[in-house]
């Protein structure tokens, strides 16, 4: 029997019980559209997370202090203050680190900032003048922190856009006083708004000279003396030089710290973070897909169920067809094609619905206040179609085999 | 045409063996028209199943057109049914959701069927149902349904037509029509017809009556004068019954 005839017979058999076929189809439709929509949302979230990370620049390296360890208990990375301002300065223009084009150490603490009756709790970041270029924080009004102010532990502050608005409203904050953790500072500039990221707003912070944080706002002191820093942001001149830069930084710091054994610092790149994040979000996307697949599986069981009922109902028909000369293979093909038609049809409708849903969700703020770009991709659609066809074959084969192996006499006698 | 040699068939139900055929030897020539008679349980249905290649005997030999069909696989048997055998059933066994034409076309789907529509239409014409082609079985009378059944059996030009109680569900007028069609096919086209029946007047329309009891042939004789009288009486009855009633 040629495929077209088989297809026509399958279609007409399904047509005799339209409601039943439609309900069976619905199971697959829901499964496939759920897979496509949830995967699109997952991919969209993943995309927006990596995108926001990408805006920070891809040629950055982060040098962080190593972990402290007391009696075998690790305090985690960055738990000691092994890096100093001098370490950071040593990386600038070092003959051992030619790939480094900019160095911006930072030291973070949190603080309560007050102006008049307004106050807010925010991140206080101690920085050097190079922070502006290395981390790409352009000033919108006023000026950035100067080398002199770092030298003198000056009590000056550059505000993030959100902080400026919270404390000063529509007034210009530049030149205004501000109290940080009870100490009097002067606002010298406001940063341009960078918008939110997946890790909270980049506008909700206050920049002050790094030495000021060390001497006046935080109580942490280094063992070696000198100003300790939290993270040293290192800008690398060429993205291709990232790996070499990591080696260079490590060499310089090992020399300075006289390290022969284990490093007391770590160097991670933006890419490392991106990779880790991608791994995490991949798990998330797969998890979403897996949940949706369960409904697809249930749909497949629905097909099997209805095919088994159909085989029982049509036992006599099978007997007649066999008496007229239908072989095992003919009957098998007939029922398999019915099951596959159900699942493929459901898959096709599901792809359409899933695709439409993804388009409708596109640009809606599903992740906090950030609109996500749902990415319904053709590969997922094709995969969903293939999987639904496979489900039809898988769940159709048992009922079809049962039909095909019926003995013609028994089948003819069936009432 | 058909050669049965010491055929036996034993059904196994759990541990109990039930013999349905106990050594049947029989030969039917091409273009013969034969009735197989017997009470229920006499083994005539089993005979029919084996003759129709729906089942295989436990032992013995069955040559159909010189071909030994005893040790064939299920698929080979299906092929033989498709090529050589036309079935007519007591309950018609038409597919209710298909039209008469599609029902007749069905056997042509299996095996190499070309010109399916044309051949199905020809077969329906032969049984006088050219004007009912697009009706579904439920829209046809019993006699018409059985004629569709005959057309379906005819469509592949079988060498053997097997009719299992073809008139069992029909009134006497329709029964006569069906028998007449079978007779016509036998006489005009030389089709070998085997009718399984327990109605003596139907059997009388054939040329040879084989009677069975307990899985064995107890009588095998040509149709004689007595049978024809019986048939004439039955025809008369049918005519009387159909008076003032449109023919089927």
Keyword list:
heterodimer; A: 415 residues; alpha+beta; 2 domains; six-stranded mixed beta barrel; two-stranded antiparallel sheet; 13 helices; 19% strand; elongated; B: 248 residues; alpha/beta; Rossmann fold; six-stranded mixed sheet; four-stranded antiparallel sheet; 8 helices; 10 strands
Your description of this structure?
- The complex is a heterodimer of chains A (415) and B (248).
- Chain A has 415 residues and is an alpha+beta fold.
- Chain A has two domains: 190 residues, no CATH class; 183 residues, no CATH class.
- Chain A is 53% helix and 19% strand.
- In chain A, helix 2 runs antiparallel to helix 9 and helix 9 packs parallel to helix 12.
- The two termini of chain A are 28 Å apart.
- In chain A, 43% of the residues are buried.
- Chain B has 248 residues and is of the alpha/beta class.
- Helices cover 38% and strands 27% of the residues of chain B.
- At the A-B interface, helix 1, helix 10, helix 11 and helix 13 of A face helix 2 and helix 3 of B.
| Average pLDDT over all residues of chain B | 89
- Please tell me the CATH architecture of chain B by its name: 3-Layer(aba) Sandwich
Note the overall shape of chain A: elongated
Main sheet strand line-up of chain B: 6-7-8-3-9-10
Question: In percent terms, what proportion of residues of chain B is strand?
Answer: 25-35%
**Main sheet specs of chain A:** 6 strands, mixed, barrel
Low-confidence stretches of chain B: none
* Count of discrete structural domains of chain B: 1
Mean pLDDT of chain A: 85
**Continuous helix count of chain B:** 8
Structural category of chain B? alpha/beta
The CATH class assignment of chain B is Alpha Beta
């Amino acid at each position: 029997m040629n495929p077209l005839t088989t297809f026509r017979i399958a279609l007409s058999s399904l047509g005799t019980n339209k409601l039943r076929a439609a309900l069976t189809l619905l199971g697959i439709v829901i499964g496939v559209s759920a897979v496509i929509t949830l995967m699109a949302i997952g991919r969209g979230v993943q995309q927006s997370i990596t995108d926001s990370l990408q805006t920070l620049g891809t040629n950055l390296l982060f040098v962080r202090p190593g972990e402290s360890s007391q009696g075998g208990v690790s305090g985690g990375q960055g738990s000691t203050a092994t890096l100093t301002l001098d370490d950071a300065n040593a990386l600038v223009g070092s003959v051992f680190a030619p790939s480094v084009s900019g160095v911006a150490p930072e030291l973070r603490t949190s603080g309560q900032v007050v102006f008049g009756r307004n106050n807010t709790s925010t991140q206080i970041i101690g920085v050097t003048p190079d922070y502006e270029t290395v981390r790409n924080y352009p000033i919108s009004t006023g000026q950035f922190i100067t080398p002199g102010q770092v030298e003198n532990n000056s009590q000056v502050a550059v505000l993030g856009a959100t902080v400026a608005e919270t404390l000063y409203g529509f007034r210009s904050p530049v030149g205004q006083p501000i109290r940080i953790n009870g100490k009097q500072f002067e606002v010298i500039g406001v940063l341009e708004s960078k918008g939110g990221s997946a890790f909270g707003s980049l506008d909700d912070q206050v920049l002050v000279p790094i030495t000021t944080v060390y001497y006046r706002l935080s109580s942490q002191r280094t063992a070696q003396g000198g100003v300790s820093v939290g993270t040293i942001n290192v800008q690398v001149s060429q993205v291709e030089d990232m790996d070499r830069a990591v080696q260079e930084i490590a060499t310089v710091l090992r020399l300075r710290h006289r390290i022969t054994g284990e490093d007391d610092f770590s160097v991670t790149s933006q890419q490392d973070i991106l990779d880790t994040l991608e791994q995490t979000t991949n798990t998330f996307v797969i998890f979403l897909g897996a949940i949706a697949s369960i409904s697809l599986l249930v749909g497949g069981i629905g097909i099997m169920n209805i095919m088994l009922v159909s085989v029982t109902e049509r036992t006599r028909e099978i007997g007649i067809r066999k008496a007229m000369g239908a072989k095992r293979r003919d009957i098998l093909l007939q029922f398999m094609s019915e099951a596959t038609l159900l699942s493929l049809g459901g898959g096709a409708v599901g792809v359409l619905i899933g695709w439409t849903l993804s388009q409708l969700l596109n640009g809606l703020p599903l992740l906090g206040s950030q609109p996500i770009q749902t990415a319904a991709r053709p590969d997922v659609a094709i995969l969903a179609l293939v999987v639904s066809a496979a489900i039809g074959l898988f769940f159709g084969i048992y009922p079809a085999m049962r039909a095909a192996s019926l003995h013609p006499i028994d089948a003819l006698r069936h009432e | 045409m058909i050669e049965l040699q010491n055929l036996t068939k034993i059904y196994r139900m759990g541990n109990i063996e039930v013999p349905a055929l106990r050594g049947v030897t029989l030969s039917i020539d091409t273009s013969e028209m034969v009735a197989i008679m017997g009470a229920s349980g006499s083994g005539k249905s089993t005979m029919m199943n084996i003759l129709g290649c729906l089942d295989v005997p436990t032992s013995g030999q069955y040559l159909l057109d010189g071909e030994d069909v005893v040790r064939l696989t299920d698929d080979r048997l299906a092929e033989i049914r498709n090529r050589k055998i036309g079935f007519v059933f007591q309950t018609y066994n038409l597919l209710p959701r298909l039209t008469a034409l599609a029902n007749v076309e069905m056997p042509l789907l299996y095996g190499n069927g070309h010109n399916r529509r044309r051949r199905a239409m020809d077969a329906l014409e032969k049984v006088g149902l050219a004007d009912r082609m697009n009706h579904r079985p439920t829209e046809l009378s019993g006699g018409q349904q059985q004629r569709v059944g005959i057309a379906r059996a005819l469509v592949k030009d079988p060498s053997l037509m097997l009719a299992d109680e073809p008139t069992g569900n029909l009134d006497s007028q329709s029964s006569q029509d069906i028998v007449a069609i079978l007779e016509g096919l036998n006489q005009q086209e030389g089709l070998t017809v085997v009718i399984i029946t327990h109605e003596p007047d139907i059997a009388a329309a054939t040329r040879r009556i084989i009677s069975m009891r307990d899985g064995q042939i107890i009588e095998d004789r040509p149709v004689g004068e007595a049978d024809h009288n019986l048939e004439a009486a039955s025809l008369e009855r049918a005519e009387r019954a159909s008076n003032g009633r449109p023919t089927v």
